[in-house]
Amino acid sequence: MLSDRALAAFRSALGADRVFDDAATRAVYACDETPRRVEPDAVLFPTSHDEVAALARIAHEHRVALTPRGAGSGNVGGALPAPGSVVVSFECMRRVLEFDPANRLIVVEAGVVTAEIDRIARSAGLFYPPDPGSSAYCRIGGNLAMNAAGPRAVKYGVTRDYVLGLRAVTGDGREIRTGCRTTKGVTGYDLTRLLVGSGGTLALITEATLKLLPAPASVATLRVCYASNRAALDAVSRVMQQAVLPCALEFMDQRAIDAIRPTGAADDLSPGTRALLMVEADGAAEDVPRQIAALEQALAGDGLLGIKSGFERDEITRLWTARKSLSHAVKRIAPLKINEDVVVPVSQLADFVDFIDHTAHAQQLAVVSFGHAGNGNLHVNLMVHPDDADEMERARLAHDAILLRVLALGGTLSGEHGIGTEKRRFVGREIDSPTLDLMRAIKLQFDPHCLLNPGKLFPD
């Protein structure tokens, strides 16, 4: 348990009004989007890099585990407190420290909302490409911890690709800066890319220098209906083998379509639609029609039922309604969503989805598959009733079988959510022992007493 001396030291560093150990606050910060709950011993609210450094030194001195937290919107237990730990919430660190359009960069604190970064960039004709589904409320610090992505990743890449440099604090309170302010630089080891995606296990990231791009002048969208999953996913392979790279290429299976029907979002789909692709292109206004024509040619094939296109903002918004309404719609199927974000080679997607459907049928489960097909990144959602012990056991068997199939196909356990607590036991099946040993040794260099986000990422 948190000692009185450690608690007093935290209050001395932050002030009593930003250190909470009451039951109500601890309950609020006991979970993320996973169904698990672990109450922290206290919750700390720093407002600056210097305060974070002070907290890390106190934690090191008193051997207090720290769990960093942004918005708590993660799906893998990354912000789930370890027993006896203290949550460090970055939600009060919301300052934009610098916006430099001339050099296409922005410097922000870890608690800035992701969509706000893009809004500021667009005010100067730029944009911030990473677009996780939770961008309206998730924090950039959480995006950095998990290397978040989104639909635009197929063309523009993921969070890691837009981080020029970081300011952070190690587990023993050392203050470090990584990277640089330029888009080219090879001085020293690339610690920036090491920290991004490390799940808060190496350092507490307080500030980030992010690269921005010129905003595309024009965008157009295609909504494409198919008679089967295989027809849709074969089309994905054709799209990814031709010259025009879409900025989004999203897939929805039959159960996903069924989930959105009560909302009215699927009323105008072609009759017989059992799978759906959302395809988007962007670029110069005079070039987008050419891109769309090339994509339509690649999308044509057996099982195609219909294509609707949108070139104006209102048309595009209407076409995306089906995909945008999905996350909330699936929650009507069952109260608990076990959400995976696995990745397989694009050429294996059709076989993988066939395996998911077979497994769901064999275990008598409702499984909804959708996601970023252009990257081979699929969200596999097992919809279950947590009070049904038999169904939960069948879900466990299906979940394990799906993850093992991912690895057998040459895929990876996570494309954008991270490992957290939920997939730790499978990490040793993807990463060999010598490599894991090296990773653990790196962890000790940053965090010698293993106080930062313990119980995450590595298998026992």
Provide an overview of this structure:
The chain has 460 residues and is of the alpha+beta class. The chain is 34% helix and 22% strand. It has 17 helices and 18 strands. The chain has helices spanning 4-14, 23-28, 49-62, 114-122, 140-146, 153-156, 191-195, 229-241, 254-260, 288-299, 313-319, 321-324, 326-329, 349-362, 389-408, 424-430, 433-446; strands at residues 19-20, 42-44, 66-69, 86-89, 96-100, 105-109, 126-127, 163-170, 175-179, 203-211, 213-214, 218-226, 248-252, 275-283, 304-310, 336-343, 366-372, 377-384. The strands form four sheets. Strands 15-12-14-13-17-18-16 form a seven-stranded antiparallel beta sheet. Strand 8 (163-170) and strand 9 form a beta hairpin. Helix 1 (4-14) runs antiparallel to helix 3, helix 8 (229-241) runs antiparallel to helix 14 (349-362) and helix 14 runs antiparallel to helix 15 (389-408). The longest helix has 20 residues, at 389-408. The protein is globular. The model has no long low-confidence stretch (mean pLDDT 96).
Instruction: Note the gap between the termini.
Output: 22 Å
> What is the chains' assembly state?
single chain
Strand order of the largest sheet: 15-12-14-13-17-18-16
- Report the total helices: 17
> Poorly predicted ranges (pLDDT <50, ≥5 residues)?
none
Mean pLDDT: 96
Largest sheet: 7 strands, antiparallel
The helicity comes to 25-40%
Hey, roughly how much beta strand do the residues contain? 15-25%
Indicate the radius of gyration in whole angstroms: 23 Å
Give the helix/strand class: alpha+beta
Apparent shape: globular
Number of strands: 18
